[in-house]
Design brief:
The protein is 33% helix and 30% strand. The chain is of the alpha/beta class. The protein has 2 domains: 80 residues, 2-Layer Sandwich (Alpha-Beta Plaits), CATH 3.30.70; 194 residues, Rossmann fold (3-Layer(aba) Sandwich). The strands form 3 sheets. A 7-stranded mixed sheet has the order 7-6-5-8-9-10-11. The protein has a 4-stranded antiparallel sheet with strand order 2-3-1-4, covered by helices on one side. The structure holds ligand LMY7XDAE.
């Protein structure tokens, strides 16, 4: 598999950005494989994802960022440089609901998600056996309101020891502290079981059923300090009707949760997500 470099760029929009970036790659022998850009005309911001083959690129990997820096400065770019050879280490947090966990365990084992699933953390012991059948370490960190911060310190210590790059909250029922969120900014993905911003908070299926909605949904988003308010990565919906019981809605909703979370994780692991102004640009 050829190794590629990926640049994710955002900057004030102006003429010549595309030419400058593609010129930098071409003049140094890179073969561009994917290039996509978007402009937020309201905010006059330019966004770009460009990926190129490194096999004939003249600049050594460790010098690419330094060589690109003058262009970044000239255009006041925020940029991230990634390499396809870097397989991200992943941790999953769960509580007792297991449908998203089952789905993710299978997808990682099947190689559908290009990540290294290093561990699962839970505030309950219920899912230990399931996780360990996949050969993945399971860590039980019980939490109460009183012990939450102290337990989080231990979790963060483990996450750093294992060099975790991405955390997935697969129906994890604990609110993460500001300190935790801050240490993993835009590297914690949550699945919320509603079509946000509808039904923020607890029991969205029950509230949707009581409201008599005709559409239910699921939303994956980056976790921020404010509950369920982080940058939305992916959403999907399904129709429901008066014929659906609450159990029918939960069943239909859980199918959505699994696919919406998997899409978000895949795009993150493939470096296809740019975050700005609490929103995302998805280069898929
Ligand atoms: N800082 C954040 N933490 C979490 C977020 C978030 O957006 N920001 N999303 C939640 C997931 N979630 C809804 O999708 C959610 C989970 C838990 C709760 C809640 O009230 N939990 C109670 C404890 C409940 C229990 O012990 O069973 C609490 O933490 O006090 C609301 C919404 C994950 N974390």
């Amino acid at each position: 598999m050829r190794e590629t470099a990926i640049l994710l760029i955002s900057c004030p929009d102006r003429k010549g950005i595309l030419a400058k970036v593609t010129g930098f790659i071409a003049e140094n022998g890179g073969n561009i494989l994917h290039a996509d850009q978007h402009i937020d005309f309201q905010k006059e911001i330019f966004f770009m994802r460009i990926e190129w083959d490194l096999s004939s690129f003249k600049i050594p990997k460790e010098k690419i960022a330094g060589s690109f820096e003058p262009i970044a400065k000239e255009f006041a770019m925020n940029y991230q440089l990634h390499f396809s050879s870097k397989v991200q280490n992943v941790a999953i947090f769960v509580s007792k609901y297991d449908h998203c966990l089952h789905d993710l365990l299978y997808r990682f084992k099947a190689g559908e998600l290009k990540g290294n699933l290093k561990l699962v953390i839970s505030n309950h012991p219920d899912l230990k056996e399931l996780v360990e059948t996949y050969g993945v370490p399971f860590y039980h960190f019980p939490k109460t309101k009183e012990t939450k911060l102290e337990v989080e310190e231990k979790e963060i210590e483990l996450l750093k020891k294992e060099k975790i790059d991405l955390i997935i909250l697969a129906r994890y029922m604990q609110i993460l502290s500001d300190n935790f969120v801050n240490q993993f900014r835009n590297r914690i993905i949550n699945i919320h079981h509603s079509f946000l911003p509808a039904f923020v908070g607890a029991k969205p299926y029950h509230r949707a059923y009581e409201r008599g909605v005709k559409i239910i949904g699921a939303t994956s988003h980056y976790v921020t300090e404010e509950l369920d308010q982080g940058p939305i990565i992916e959403q999907d919906v399904v129709r429901v009707s008066h014929r659906d019981t609450l159990e029918d809605m939960i069943r239909k909703g859980r199918d959505l949760e699994k696919i919406v979370l998997a899409r978000a994780v895949r795009w993150h692991l493939e470096n296809k997500i740019l975050v700005y102004d609490n929103k995302t640009v998805i280069f898929d």
